[in-house]
Amino acid sequence: MPAYAVTGATGHLGRLVIEDLLDRGVPAAEIVAVARSEAKAADLARRGVQVRLADYSLPETLPAALDGVRRLLLISGDVPGRRPALHAAVIEAARAAGVERVVYTGLLRAGTSASPLAPDHRATEEILAASGVPFTVLRNGWYTENHTDQLPRYLERGEILGAAGSGRISAAPRADYAGAAAAALTGDEHDGAVYELAGQAFTLDELAATVTEVTGTKVVYRDLPAAEYAAALRRSGMDEGTAAFVASLDESIARGDLEAGAGDLARLLGRPVTPLDEVIRNARP
Ligand SMILES: NC(=O)c1ccc[n+]([C@@H]2O[C@H](COP(=O)([O-])OP(=O)(O)OC[C@H]3O[C@@H](n4cnc5c(N)ncnc54)[C@H](OP(=O)(O)O)[C@@H]3O)[C@@H](O)[C@H]2O)c1
After folding, report:
1. Residue 146 Cα, ligand 1 centroid: separation in angstroms?
2. To the nearest 10°, the Cα dihedral for 253, 74, 189, 184?
3. 283 pLDDT exceeds 70?
4. Residue 94's domain spans which residues?
5. What is the model's pLDDT at position 277?
6. Assigned domain for 117 exists
7. Whose CA is nearest to atom 31 of ligand 1?
């Protein structure tokens, strides 16, 4: 009988959660990787993880994927705006399959945040609460990788562009959020809990200073009005809609939407959250 199912299993976070479950000694045969592509999940199948194909947008694929599952990690989908309806289908399938607890990866301070990302996550939390299925919400903060993935560009330009002002970002690497998700999935004391998961807080000025310190290459932060930042993103090849969205995320950072204490994440991990300089050191090109 499969103990745990992880959706988005072929994504960055899902893979790390499965890795963490295996590291904790959960037998591979007790883990279901819910994936859209058999080919993408082939490595997981080779390791003995049960791969089941399903798509949030094809409700008929969900019952077989969740059959016999005790606890489900629902990793949020990646299409803003469409997510509540897609997540609702998964939650309904979990209820029908008798899943004992759904653990959902949401957004930091989703209840009150003015982030453009918040409405989808707030709506999903409401759907969960109304579903009658026991649940745990992991309100994930910013991934440090949102910045470290751009390290080569920062080093090449000698600057970080943004519109976040002196807003603080309490980020943690995906692996830390994955560790927390594995802990919430395997632990027995998380029914009804809503965790605010965040890491070390930094401004983009402090990010630039830490990049400089770790790499030895001088990088500064250049703060722009949101419209100018969006224009710079467009000039670098981003389409207009995405550029506007990314700039609006920086405005949300400037308002403080991504700042929170690291207590919940450290408690779930049983260790301190990975500090910014260590994530940058590990990501150095
Ligand atoms: N906290 C942050 O800074 C941050 C940043 C970016 C995203 N996020 C959120 O966190 C989630 C996980 O992050 P990530 O880095 O693992 O993202 P990712 O690598 O893009 O993975 C997303 C996963 O969701 C799966 N998925 C998307 N739509 C689906 C659908 N309709 N049915 C079934 N599976 C579907 C994808 O399947 P495929 O593998 O088949 O594509 C993929 O495995 C994202 O989806 C997004 O909601 C958070």
Report:
1. 14
2. -60
3. yes
4. 4-141+173-197+260-274
5. 97
6. yes
7. 56
Q: Residue 80 has what pLDDT?
A: 87
Kindly give the distance from the C-alpha atom of residue 7 to the centroid of ligand 1, in angstroms, as a whole number: 9
Distance CA 236, CA 243 (A): 10
How much is the average pLDDT of 246-271?
A: 96
Burial 17-46 (b: 16+ CB within 10 A, else e): bbbbbbeeebebebbbbbbbeeeebeebee
| DSSP H stretches of helix in 132-203 | 145-148, 151-157, 174-186
Return the amino acid letter for 119.
Answer: P
**Exposure of 5 in the CB half-sphere (CA atoms within 13 A):** 31
**What's the pLDDT tens digit per position in 62-119?**
999 999 999 999 999 998 889 999 999 999 999 999 999 999 999 999 999 999 999 9
Say yes or no to pLDDT of 253 above 70.
Answer: yes
CATH number of the domain that residue 51 is part of: 3.40.50.720
Average pLDDT over residues 129-157: 97
- Alpha-carbon distance 61 to 67, whole Å? 11
What is the structure's pLDDT at 170?
A: 97
What average pLDDT does the structure give for the chain?
97
Tokens of 171: 């980020």
- At 18 the three-state DSSP class reads helix
Kindly give the number of the ligand 1 atom that is closest to the alpha carbon of 78.
45
State residue 285's pLDDT score: 74
In a domain, 114, yes or no: yes
